[in-house]
Automatic annotation (TrEMBL):
UniProt key word Transport: yes
Protein name: Phosphate transporter
Subcellular location: Membrane
UniProt entry tagged with the keyword Transmembrane: yes
GO biological process per UniProt: phosphate ion transmembrane transport
GO CC list: membrane
Bilayer topology annotation: Multi-pass membrane protein
Family classification: Belongs to the inorganic phosphate transporter (PiT) (TC 2.A.20) family.
Signal peptide: none
GO MF, one example: phosphate transmembrane transporter activity
Keywords assigned by UniProt, alphabetized: Membrane, Phosphate transport, Transmembrane, Transmembrane helix, Transport
Length: 497
């Protein structure tokens, strides 16, 4: 058989195909980063089209359509930055996956915004700056400038991994634009002083309540000889506290002020708490069967209560903070003479805010969810539950006294409160030391000692760098958004008025 002739040409096809494959992979990597911004732009276009359907034959339709786009952009930034407070703890504690958290938060944000969001729009649209003292033609441009400035600042804060208050951003922007337009006279400085006071009090209260709750959990459940028996008794009680507290909060939000006296609201909360205890007790008993007497078993019993608290907190957040996006839009709708403006926005206005928050959460939320849930301090389901319940209770108490508070400040303050309490408790708890000694004696160890004691003395349980970054972002939010809004108003006035 004659030998095969030698191939004198180079086989370049495989090499060329390999180069093309690598080029395609690089292109996909670059394009993948553009998917979220592209989808965001599509949503802005849909929001403009949605608003145009309702106002195309009305005077000032162009202004309203442009404001709808800005409100949608603001809502997406709220979803990207602010909603992390609701599900960040649950994700950090591994009670739910990132995908589950995004879907649950998106659904309950929409429900909260559309069902209970209409009553909280009035403060942003007309109470911060008295629109009666402002020329009607200037109201629209003031709110346009405020929306643009607040959204840009929140977008920057999200990019910097700083969970700032969207409430304070829009409040500062409305004040700054109002001062830039007509001076300081129409500004309600009493409201501003209350907000300033809440910067200090709400994170401290949230952190304190979270620390107290964690102390109770550790004392009543974690450091007991029979953890599972203690959990069977106390976890339904904690679920009842959560359900009763959230129901009292919902009554405050869903009904006009003064319709129900405080005693009636307390009775409603107690009644719902009792029903929740009766429902949770058999469920916890069933989950506790065959569980080993160890801390990892407690995570199973705290998982469902934590998921429920995250969902309810998302509903409450949607009901409250949707006004940060649609409050200025509602004022603009009212300023051009369309019925159902300030205080009672049309349904289409609420839908833009509700879906905008969910779109922002789904596209851009995971980044800060990881920061709040994982990078400040380590969270397990017990600690995360304390954070969620503390945030809810602090909002309830603040609403009771009429204090304008920020969900962001309270949630992040609660996370820090849990972390700082863990540092103190690890070093000073006599119950913990006695528990470790009993466990060591049961294993016949001559010199019982916490195996982590040297590590816990050497390191902190809270990352101080995140603490300083977040506090700095809180301090500068109102002045930065206010100054930016004033400059944007002057530019808009020079170009369009």
């Amino acid at each position: 058989m004659p030998p095969r002739p030698a191939v004198l040409t180079k086989r370049t096809l495989d090499k060329d195909l390999e180069k093309l494959t690598r080029t395609e992979d690089a292109a996909k990597h670059v394009l993948r980063q553009l998917v979220a911004p592209g989808l965001g732009l599509i949503f802005l276009g849909l929001a403009m089209l949605f608003a145009g359907v309702y106002v195309f034959d009305r005077p000032g339709a162009v202004l309203v359509v442009a404001a709808a786009a800005l409100a949608a952009y603001m809502a997406m930034n709220i979803g990207a930055n602010d909603v992390t407070n609701n599900v960040g703890a649950a994700v950090g504690a591994r009670a739910m996956t990132m995908g589950q958290a995004l879907v649950i938060a998106a659904i309950f944000e929409i429900l909260g915004a559309t069902i209970a969001g209409g009553e909280v729009v009035k403060t942003i649209s007309s109470d911060i700056v008295n629109t009666v003292q402002v020329p009607q033609a200037a109201v629209g441009w003031i709110m346009m400038a405020a929306l643009t400035a607040a959204a840009l600042w929140i977008n920057l804060a999200t990019w910097m991994n700083a969970p700032v208050s969207t409430t304070h951003a829009i409040v500062g922007a409305v004040i700054g634009a109002g001062i830039g337009a007509v001076g300081p006279e129409p500004v309600n400085w009493r409201v501003m002083l209350e907000i300033t006071a809440s910067w200090i009090t709400s994170p401290l209260i949230g952190g304190l309540i979270a620390a107290v709750l964690l102390y109770l959990v550790k004392t009543l459940i974690v450091y007991r000889d029979d953890k599972i028996a203690a959990a069977r008794h106390w976890v339904p009680v904690l679920v009842a506290m959560m359900a009763g507290g959230f129901m009292a909060y919902m009554v405050l939000q869903l009904t006009p002020h003064g319709r129900f006296p405080s005693f009636t609201i307390i009775l409603i909360g107690i009644g719902i708490g009792l029903v929740s205890w009766l429902a949770a007790r058999p469920l916890i008993l069933r989950q506790a069967r065959d569980l080993e007497n160890r801390n990892s078993s407690l995570r199973v019993l705290f998982r469902l209560p934590l998921i429920g608290s995250a969902a309810l907190l998302s509903f409450a957040h949607g009901a409250n903070d949707v006004s940060n996006a649609v409050g200025p839009l509602s004022a603009i709708v009212h300023s051009v003479g369309i019925a159902g403006g300030a205080g009672h926005p049309p349904l289409w206005v609420m839908l833009i805010g509700a879906f905008g928050i969910s779109v922002g959460l789904l596209l851009f939320g995971p980044r800060l969810i990881r920061l709040v849930g994982e990078e400040i301090t380590k969270l397990n389901p017990m600690r995360a539950y304390c954070v969620a319940l503390s945030t809810a209770f602090t909002v309830i108490v603040a609403s009771w006294f009429g204090l304008p508070v920020s969900t962001t400040h309270i949630a992040v303050g609660s996370v820090f409160g849990v972390g700082f309490f863990r540092e103190w408790y690890t070093r000073h708890s006599k119950r913990r030391i006695a528990y470790i000694r009993r466990k060591a004696e049961s294993f016949d160890i001559d010199e019982p000692e916490d195996p982590n004691i040297h590590e816990t003395r050497r390191r902190y349980l809270v990352r101080r760098s995140h603490f300083m970054t977040i506090v700095a972002a809180w301090i500068v939010t109102v002045p930065v958004s206010g100054a930016l809004a004033a400059m944007i108003y002057w530019v808009m006035f020079a170009l369009f008025v």
